[in-house]
Input
Amino acid sequence: MKRIVLGGMTALALLAVSGCAVREDVAELYKQEKPLEADIVLPEASTIGEETIEVVLTREEKPVEGADFVHIEIWKQDGTASFRMDEMQPAGDGVYTYTQSFSDEGLYYVQLHAGHGGQVIIPKKQMIVGELTEEDRAFLDAGEEAPAVEHGDHH
Output
């Protein structure tokens, strides 16, 4: 009798363990979220004065229209200039634009804050306006990270 009970318990244990086996296709059983992507397009040769910055938002290589928000933030590497976060304007076909007036040459950072369908991305890109200062060159040569800008605006 003990053998029958022991055999039955072993069979049940094996059945329970086999039900917990890892499935190779488990990732395909869940919704696969496609990432929101942004291409920050800067003028080829930026100079003092007005410059227009474009951002192309895509998901699965298709333009993203009607994003929840598309904000831009610009600051100078040395901290001497910082522009408030502002909303970019939709230009159609997933393109958003913003025009900024620059009064000083040097190394700037352009950071995008974009959201669509529950996803938020915050890419950043360097922008050179006019000529680099010696301090900017030293900063780039040292390979340092871009300083963050403190602001009170949150989404």
Notes: The chain has two helices and ten strands.
